[in-house]
Amino acid sequence: MNAQSHDIIVVGQGAAGLAAALAAAQAARGIRVTLVDKASEQEAGGNTRWSPSYMRMASPDRVEPSFVHDMLTATQHQGDEAYFARLAKEAPATVKWIAAQGVTFIQPVYYLAKGPPRIQPEGGGPAVVKQLALAAKAAGVIFRYNCAAQALTSERGRVTGLVVTHDGVQETLEASAVILCSGGFEGDGAAMREHFGEGAQTMRLISPGGKFNTGDGIKMAVALGAALSGDWNGMHAEPVDARSKNSAPVVLVYPYGIVVDKHGQRFFDEGYGLVHETWEWFARGMHFKVPGSIAFAILDSRLLAIQGYERAIRSEVPPVSAGTLAELAKLIGVDADKLAATVAVYNAACTGDPNTFDATRCDGLAASHTLQPPKSNWARTIQEPPFLAYPLVGAVAYTFGGLATDASARVLRDGLAIPGLYAAGEITGHFYATAPNAVSVLRAFVFGRIAGLEAVSFLQGL
Ligand SMILES: Cc1cc2nc3c(=O)[nH]c(=O)nc-3n(C[C@H](O)[C@H](O)[C@H](O)COP(=O)(O)OP(=O)(O)OC[C@H]3O[C@@H](n4cnc5c(N)ncnc54)[C@H](O)[C@@H]3O)c2cc1C
Description:
With 462 residues, the protein is α/β, with parallel strands linked by helices. It folds into 2 domains: 293 residues, FAD/NAD(P)-binding domain, CATH 3.50.50; 160 residues, Succinate dehydrogenase/fumarate reductase flavoprotein, catalytic domain (Flavocytochrome C3, Chain A, domain 1). The chain is built from 10 helices and 18 strands. The strands form 4 sheets. Strands 1, 2, 5, 6, 7, 8, 17 and 18 form an 8-stranded mixed beta sheet that branches. Strands 9, 11, 12, 13, 14 and 15 form a 6-stranded mixed beta sheet that branches. Strand 6 and strand 7 form a beta hairpin. Flavin-adenine dinucleotide binds next to helix 1, strand 6, strand 15 and helix 10.
């Protein structure tokens, strides 16, 4: 083992790590900033590289006035108000700073229904990773790929460096500060099983980037006594086309039809709320509770008449299509008699005026109360051939359990900051119950930047 001196080491080249490294390098030219990523240069970027990176802002210079309140509601009041208040406060300045690095922000058209307002970097996550990596290199950040962080070193409780394996060779890199941005643990099957129960290890990763996020940074910090935060039984998951080979082939038109298991039975209220309000627990429930962990969205040809319906389907594989429900059932391997019975019961309960159907909002077109499970919106009969089906499985995007950090991105131990240790992005906890929509990338940028600036101040104060 040999030791090399680095002032600040950032672990992970996603949104959080890039923001941290760039902010640190720009803040103090004399400070040596190194970013290590366990993936190759082509694959580094974690989930960020595969994410459209919607960010919950009303416009690039403004978050909704209700932002903090909304975060506390999403976390069922278990979230840290100071953390979310700092996020809201710093978001506009952070977006302005990212834009100054050559990233353009747009206001995207979302799936079909309106959700909270959002902005998006043009070109999504891939563009952000490319542009911020370029800016960081220009600012003097040294990048080391195929370089996996394994352990933190410390003296008298203060971080002194990082043990890495670089191209198979173990090294100890000395540093005055380390910023952990290595994502959650969705890529570690054993940890998934430990926290979510048997079967979690087989859950599909929604993007190839998730396989690198194996909770390494969390374990490294915990070995130094770091405190934990976030919901360890929480993950963000979405329903994807079981047949697709694409990244994130989400199918988000299920609210407009019904969803059945392989026995042809419905098992939840597909129209309970807007799609981003139901996708997480639908995807989780499908994986853990539905026989074979697979379900089928059943629709009819009226789907194709919904304006812009293609936006809500990110699979490259067309739906299974048939002239009759019996043929459709045969093609997807579902019991034909049971599917026919389920659709008949559902159709009979669709007693509302179909002219009030509106895919863009909760339209109140509920099925009659006798239907079990209920269908609270978009209850329109399935009767116009061709009949369509999408086989769906639940796929995990990211986990919620992580490190406890304060509003200055410092990693906490017994309520106090661990000197020289910072963390940002998915690796930090802070999310509980359900993923607040379009906040993960935003908080990675904001707290990544804060971590970079804080680490520089820490070094300057030594
Ligand atoms: C398909 C998809 C769509 C999404 N859409 C949105 C969206 O629209 N809006 C939103 O807010 N969020 C979205 N998310 C979530 C969001 O993209 C991520 O939570 C966020 O980008 C995480 O950023 P990060 O920097 O914390 O981690 P990541 O981007 O995952 O980066 C982690 C990096 O750490 C590296 N790493 C891991 N372990 C080590 C180690 N031991 N040593 C060195 N390097 C290591 C990895 O290789 C990776 O490059 C989406 C996620 C996915 C997968």
